[in-house]
Each structure stands twice: as structure tokens, then as C-alpha cells.
Amino acid sequence: MDQGGSVPKRRAVLAAVVGSAVLTAYSIAGAYQILVWNPLAAVPGASLSEIYAALESAGETLGAPRVIAWSAVGVALAVVGLIGTILERAPRPRQVVSGYLALLVLAAPSHMFVAFTGGMGIADAFATSGGDHAPWGGMLYAASGLALLALLALALLQTAGLQKRLRNA
Questions:
Q1: Nearest Cα to Cα of residue 74 among 94, 46, 121, 82
Q2: CA atoms within 13 A on the CB side of 132
Q3: Is 93 helix (H, G, I), strand (E, B) or coil?
Q4: Cβ of 75: how many Cβ atoms within 10 Å?
Q5: Does the predicted model carry a pTM greater than 0.85?
Q6: Rounded CA gap, 105 and 107, in Å?
Q7: How far is residue 42's CA from residue 3's CA, in Å, rounded to a whole number?
Q8: Cβ-based burial of 44 (10 A; exposed 0-12, middle 13-18, buried ≥19)
Q9: Residue 63 to residue 158: CA distance in whole angstroms
Q10: What is the pLDDT along the chain (169 residues), one digit of tens a residue?
């Protein structure tokens, strides 16, 4: 028997654990995409240290401090969401899921913003395009797109459930 909403709380905490893991993975992968994978794909045959040296000699940068700060903020948001869910007396699983999905949706434009400096640095230093050269950036954006679709589906389900309740009232 459910004692004071423990089943919904367990579901909410589970959702927060999964959401935190996904958001943390996104944040770390996003930083690697900008600082490691994309430069290596943009300049095939060069080592990462050679790429960084060439960027420095050209007066360019990948914006590493900003990228690391972006990643740290993503991890911090994941942890804060998890702790907040654990401390909440009666968290609602759907709200927890929606919150993490919204953070994943917002991760894409913020990643694009923070990647701009590095992309332009690579483009200027190596006379190439500033876009993603490694496939992982596209995968991150696809994950954010899927999160947006899931968030919209949750909203539609919520709206349909509310309409049904209003009709039955």
C-alpha cells in the first residue's frame, strides 16, 4: 500500500537520476565536441597539441574557459535538479521529466553559442569552415530535438487529460 505518495516520489527521483545522467553526459560530450573531437576532425592528421599550437600562433582560440564553464553549468543544473527532487516532499514525476527535457532542449542553442568561438578559430587558423566537422555535434542537436518532441508530447498528453477531466466534471 502507498504510504503518503512514496511511489510517485520514487518515480520522480528515478526520473531525476536518469535526467541528471543524460544532462551530465550531454554537458561533457558537448565540451569534448568543441575542444577535442571537432578540432581533430577539422584538421585531419594533426594532433590536438599541434592544433592548439597553430591556433595560438594564429591568435585564435577555442574558447576553452567558456566551454568548460558551459559544461560545468550543465552538470550543476543536473545535480541541483536531482537534489531538489530528493528534498521535495511530493515531487511530481511528470514535472521532473518536463524540467529535464526543457534543459536538454535549451542545451542545443547554448551549445551552439559556446561553440561559435572555437568554430571561428578553427576556420580562421586553418582556412576551413567554422561548422561541425565531427558527427557528435549533430548527435547532440538531434538529442535536443528529440527532447523537444518528447516535451511537446507530454504537453499534449497533459492537455488531453485535462480536457477529459473537464468533460467528466
A1: 82
A2: 18
A3: helix
A4: 17
A5: yes
A6: 5
A7: 57
A8: exposed
A9: 41
A10: 445 558 899 999 999 999 999 999 999 999 999 999 999 999 999 999 999 999 999 999 999 999 999 999 999 999 999 999 999 999 999 999 999 999 999 999 999 999 999 999 999 999 998 889 999 999 999 999 999 999 999 999 888 877 777 777 6
Closest CA to 107 of 64, 68, 147: 147
Residue at 109: amino acid letter: P
Distance, CA of 141 to CA of 136 (rounded, Å)? 9
Amino acid at 162: L
Residue 36 amino acid letter: V
